[in-house]
Amino acid sequence: MRKILIGTLFGVLLVIVLSAPAFAALPTRVQVNVNDPSPPNASVTFQFSAAPTAGTGSGFSLEYTGDGGAAWIAATPDAGNIAPNYKFTATMVDFKLYYVRIKDNLADGYKYVDVMPPNNHGHANFSDNTDMCKGCHITHNATQAKLLKGTDTKSLCYTCHSTNTTTGSRYDVQQGRVLLGNATLDPATLKYTVTTATWGKTLGGPFGTEATPRLPDQNLWGVGTTVTSRHDIEGTVSLIPGSTKGTPTVGSLNGSYAGNTMTCISCHNGHDNDGNYRILKSKVWSTDTAVTVKAFPKTGAAGETANYVAGFSVYCALCHDKFDVIAGSGRGTQSVYRHAVDVPLTNYYYTGGTLTTSLPLETGDPGYASPQVTCISCHYAHGTVVTGTNPTYEPNGTNNSTMLKRLPNMQVCEDCHKK
User: Fold this and answer.
1) Which of 101, 276, 357, 362 could make an SS bond with 293 (beta carbons 3.0 to 4.6 A apart)?
2) Confidence (pTM)
3) Tell me: the pLDDT tens digits for 261-273?
4) What is the dihedral of CA 178, 183, 186, 187, to 10 degrees?
């Protein structure tokens, strides 16, 4: 709160008191429960306890979006809502990804959670009587620390996120596909039977099957295609392209079991402790400053698209920091020129008018005046099937790779610059 002296009137000192925006004490935990008695519409309840800001209109509101954040729909508050206990209900469509935001009516800021009917979230937002823990943990006969199943991190994650006839997740990251329908959820095992399922493309691209050649979904990514580059999960990290971080050592990668092995949990959190998009960790290295990453996906007939909001190039730069170059800097840390990121799609090196692109851009929070180019404008996060290698010049100038590019050859350049 601030006081500003503005003058006197009839000898009386006038003071205007200005109140700075208050930031809410948002709920730390939200219980989400998906009930699906009448497919394809699910009834979803949200329960939490929190103390709202006091005043007229005190309380919380809850909204959800299924279209990438273009429109937010108000959920129905329970008639018995009395602080500090709150309950809301919403009707959502099966096999569609929703993002939910909770707001203190008299303060700034949001709490975000995601929902994927007809199943409950496997990593977060558990109800008190959840049955989801058994997907990853076994109480008295576990093979890993923290009572985890599997022989390593990847094998544990692939029990739900891989190519199987039944799966506990809508996301098959091996083949780069997301479940869109025509699958049956078994309430006893919490797994989908997907032998006749409808699939669409995922946003991150495919890691590929374990056998060589590594294969994506051939119907979605192209008959005869193979994964040509990817982040190598369970691979030993020795030299990271575009990095000043050096070779990881035991404990330097935040959450990696072996220290110098990149795993799923090098980037992702087993539980949504950080509130980031796609349960991304706020830190990749133990010494990192926490990063917030925000996006709102949209489920369509061909798969998912997304409104990428904020934080993506900063997140990639937790490892690939040499490539995080802003406009006007010219040279990076190795006295070489690099393509800038976090810059608007304007007339850089182009005289034919305003640049346009089919590639994803970052919109900003609050919104940028013009959407910006970020790392994921040109690159997938998981893997790619495109052809046309380029010398990486990182770290030793001898590597050739398709570098997770979204388009073959140098089409990502031409898609914007149209020379």
Assistant:
1) 276
2) 0.89
3) 788 988 999 887 7
4) 70
Burial class (CB in 10 A: 0-12, 13-18, 19+), 288: middle
d(CA 19, CA 368): 26
pLDDT tens-place string over residues 134-154:
989 999 999 888 899 888 888
Q: Is residue 136 within 8 Å of residue 161, measured between CB atoms?
A: no
- Sign of the CA dihedral 54, 49, 170, 119? negative
Count of structural domains, the chain? 3
* 274 and 379 share one domain: yes
CB 378 within 8 A of CB 412: yes
Whether cis (ω within 30° of 0) applies to the bond prior to 216 is no
- DSSP secondary structure of 250-281: TTTBTT-SSSSEE-HHHHB-SS--S--GGGB-
Chain-wide mean pLDDT for the chain?
86
Show contacts of 409-415: CB within 8 Å, 24+ apart: 412/359, 412/377, 412/378, 415/357, 415/358, 415/359
* 390-409: pLDDT as tens digits: 877 665 556 788 999 999 99
Closest CA to 291 of 269, 272, 308, 274: 274
Query: What is the chain's Cα-based Rg?
Result: 24
Query: What stretch of H or E contains 338?
Result: none
Residue with token string 């099966």: 94
Residue 266 tokens, joined: 């090098």
Residues with Cβ within 8 Å of 398's Cβ and at least 6 positions away in sequence, in order, are 391
Per-residue confidence band for 11, with pLDDT thresholds at 50, 70 and 90: very low
Same domain, 262 and 118: no
Q: What residue numbers bound the domain in which 266 lies?
A: 228-419
Give percent helix, percent strand, percent coil of the chain, each to the nearest 5. 10, 30, 60
- The model's pLDDT over 110-143, given as tens digits with 9 standing for 90+, comes to 999 999 999 998 899 999 989 899 989 999 999 8
Same domain, 205 and 113: no
The per-residue pLDDT for range 46-81, each reduced to its tens digit, is: 999 999 999 999 999 999 999 999 999 999 999 989
Distance CA(65)–CA(89), nearest Å, equals 14
CA distances (Å), origin 81, targets 52, 58, 59, 155, 158: 12, 12, 9, 43, 40
Distance (Å, rounded) from C-alpha 233 to C-alpha 216?
Answer: 16
User: Looking at 179, 204, 224, which one is the last position of a domain?
Assistant: 224
